[in-house]
Amino acid sequence: MSDIGTGRGAPTAIDAKGIWKVFGRDAGAFNRLPLQARTPETLMAVGLVGAVQDATFQIGRGEVFAIMGLSGSGKSTLLRCLTRLIEPTAGEIAFNGRDILKLGDKELVDLRRQRMGMVFQHFALLPNRTVVGNVAFPLEVQGMPRVEAERRAMELIETVGLKGRETRFPAQLSGGQQQRVGIARSLTTNPEFWFLDEPFSALDPLIRADLQAEVLRLQQTQTRTVIFVTHDLDEAIRLADRIAIMEAGRIIQIGTPEELVTQPATDYVRRFVAKVPPARVVRVASIMTVEPGPATAGVNADATIADIAPQLVAAEGRLPVIDGARQVGWLDRSAALATLAVRI
Ligand SMILES: Nc1ncnc2c1ncn2[C@@H]1O[C@H](COP(=O)(O)OP(=O)(O)OP(=O)(O)O)[C@@H](O)[C@H]1O
Q1: Is the beta carbon of 145 within 6 A of some atom in ligand 1?
Q2: Start and end of every ABC transporter domain (predicted)?
């Protein structure tokens, strides 16, 4: 399988270690608790809520990383800790090796303005600015002359499919269009880190699918490190290289969609992924026979079995598997068809 885009093998962009976020009247009491006493039960006994508990993970540069779980499991709190919109109670967070919890206010503002883009469920557009005025705003804040900022804004407005609506005000747009403005605005500064918190959940299914496709398209043209929160497994599978599953403040498994479906760590994860058809997540590379050969055409090692269903229908026997321009193996047609038919 290719490492590009999966973040595997890529340098670590975000390194989070032992992150806790505790809410409560005396949240400071948490840091006075001995390490072994930092359990949900003890916290509850002293009137604290462990919204995020001991989260440790790395995200590779260029990786799309989803945080998912049921309502109240701590997804938004974790995302906000990563951007320091909420200060973690304990833990370490490094971006490209630099500890962001040690940044002063000005450095943090600079980091957010120059290298982070953020999109939230509620669009938070400026009501008195037009579409182009909203999208250009982050660049103007950075000091770019208005004409230049608006020129760059126009490019992004076109990218998100809002050309022709640039002089409208937010109130004159539908929810989906407003969210597109939010997406364009979050990208004007060409951020290295893109944080999205349930960006599409207020939208109807067709617009949602359009915007998901837009995110994938943008990711192919300008690779960035993307961290997004969703409670929609379908969305996570579609967009993410890896998914972190949270339950009651803890990350209980991190894996590719295929790993979560084929090797769920707990019953909770198993129930979460129970409805996912394996063919949607199992990749050709996982079930092929490794055997280099001379073929230059065949099925892509990185494709899912569902992706190659039309080729399976037409094929006989086995299909060459291609990675880049090389044949890396063979895919047995009946083994692949079994994935389509079977639940794991
Ligand atoms: N400011 C706060 N004060 C106290 N408790 C909070 C605060 N913010 C969040 N919590 C609690 O922390 C836990 C995690 O909340 P969070 O919003 O991160 O969950 P979530 O998984 O994003 O949920 P949802 O999908 O419903 O948005 C919840 O129990 C919530 O009640």
Answers
A1: no
A2: 37-273
Mutate to test the pocket of ligand 1, among 22, 44, 77 (most ligand atoms within 8 A of CB): 77
Q: What is the pLDDT of residue 2?
A: 38
Which residues lie closer than 8 Å to 27 by C-beta, 6 or more apart? 48, 89
Q: Which domain holds residue 284?
A: 280-341
183 vs 8: CA distance, rounded Å: 26
**250 Cβ inside 6 Å of ligand 1:** no
Whether residue 89 has its Cβ less than 6 Å from ligand 1: no
187 and 126 in one domain?
A: yes
Same domain as 113, residue 97: no
Same domain, yes or no: 126 and 204 = yes
What pLDDT, on the 0 to 100 scale, is given for residue 211? 83
Residues 62 and 10: beta-carbon distance below 8 Å = yes
Supply the pLDDT for residue 6. Answer: 45
Q: Could you tell me if 262 and 300 lie in one domain?
A: no
Query: Do 190 and 253 fall within a single domain?
Result: no
Q: Does the beta carbon of 133 sit less than 6 angstroms from any atom of ligand 1?
A: no
Residue 28 lies in a domain: yes
Segment (H or E) for 58:
strand 49-60
| 26, 73, 120, 229: residue to mutate for ligand 1 pocket, most atoms within 8 A of CB | 73
In the chain, the number of structural domains is 3
Question: Does one domain contain both 24 and 87?
Answer: yes
Q: Are residues 205 and 293 in the same domain?
A: no
Q: Which residues pair with 8 in a beta bridge?
A: none
Sign of CA pseudo-dihedral 148, 85, 111, 243:
negative
Report CA(85)–ligand 1 centroid distance (Å).
14
User: Which residues of the chain have a pLDDT value below 70?
Assistant: 1-9, 123, 342-344
The answer to whether residue 108 is domain-embedded is: yes
